[in-house]
Structures are given as C-alpha cells and as structure tokens.
Amino acid sequence: MATANNTVHGRIEQARAELTPAQMATGLALVVALGFALLFVQEPMVHDSMHNFRHAAGVTCH
Ligand SMILES: [Zn+2]
Predict the structure, then answer these.
(1) Where are the domains of the chain?
(2) What confidence category does residue 62 fall into, taking pLDDT thresholds of 50, 70 and 90?
(3) pLDDT value at 15 more than 90
(4) What is the largest CA-CA distance in the chain?
(5) What's the CA gap between 38 and 29, in Å, rounded?
(6) CA 61 – ligand 1 centroid, Å
(7) What stretches pass through the bilayer (predicted)?
(8) From ligand 1's centre to the CA of 25, what distance in Å?
C-alpha cells in the first residue's frame, strides 16, 4: 500500500512539475471561457422553453 501511495504521489509531483503556471492559467481560462459559452448558448433555449411553458399554461406575455 505504501508503494502504491508513493507511486501516485510521484505521479502527482511529476504532473505538477510538468505543468507550468502559464499552462495552468491557460487551462483555467479555457474552462472559464467554455463555462461562459455554455451559459450564453443555453440561456436563450432556457428562455424559450419557459416562454413556451407560459403560453402552454395560458399566460399571455405579449
Ligand atoms: Zn410570449
């Protein structure tokens, strides 16, 4: 078990050494950009579904 822990720990240390702060910042920026893109792409669809739901429920909004 101690050997396995050492191996995992060694891999983490190796990955940490190979990832430069610039690479980590790039990865983080990519994740944030993807999150914002998903938010902006999904928002109109959510709005439309809620709009259709309101009309289906007999609520007039326009
Ligand atoms: Zn409407």
Answers:
(1) 21-62
(2) confident
(3) no
(4) 68
(5) 14
(6) 5
(7) 22-41
(8) 43
